[in-house]
Amino acid sequence: MFFIISKLFWILAQPVSLILLAVLASMVLIWRGWRKTAIGLAGTAALLLFVLGYTTAGALLVQPLEARFSRPAAMPERVAAIVVLGGGTSSRISGARQVSELNMAGDRMTEALRLARAYPDAPVVFSGGGNALVSEDGSETEAATARRFFLEQGLPAARLVLEDAARNTAENAALLSGLLPEGEGAVLLVTSAYHMPRSMGLFDKAGIAMTPWPVDFRSTGEEGPGLDIGDPAVNLFTATLALREWLGLAAYYVTGRIDSPFPGPAAAR
Fold first, then answer.
1. Is residue 262 part of a domain?
2. One domain, residues 189 and 236
3. Per-residue model confidence as pLDDT tens digits over 112-151
């Protein structure tokens, strides 16, 4: 139920939807003769689009998330497992074309491959099912795409541990608890830097000690307030992604899935 509610909420609450709803509502208000209210609502929508698309707002929103956890100062001497969270592949395209299509978060996959080659004895544990509200014809689980990708890159099937039912990060943590191999060494958690606070909070809540290995950075970490007109589509996407993550942290904290509203390095035991 939490998964369905969160999906439906985000369909309406994401910035593009809010802007569209505001424009549609302003048209209705004009039709009803409430011109001043309509102009105010349309102006608010335009302002929101400008701030999120043509300024550094997205980078400023994502920076604290990306700065919360850092990689170890030195490569770990021993690694017990490399855990990769889904989100770096396009299941619909991969399934339809039978390829290993990566998306903007594909660093999760490529960095996991690099780590797998650096630690040839460590299993690669991947968690990802399908996160679509309604399953699409021809799509496949992220785990299926990940298996194809890693095999194509030369990793033996015996090194892969695949979990293909998780639909969100909470289910990643819950379903991986019984799949992680026992052994000495660090368990590396590979996911997007902006996603690391929520992920570490969930694994900490589940009693699973992880070493954060953030990838897929969306900011330089040095942006300040100002205009950024070079690529408004990317700016809007970054802002949307950051807002979703902040709302996700709030929702997970309120519902007791994590113990802190903004999990920090103390969660890494």
1. no
2. no
3. 999 999 999 999 999 999 877 566 666 799 999 999 999 9
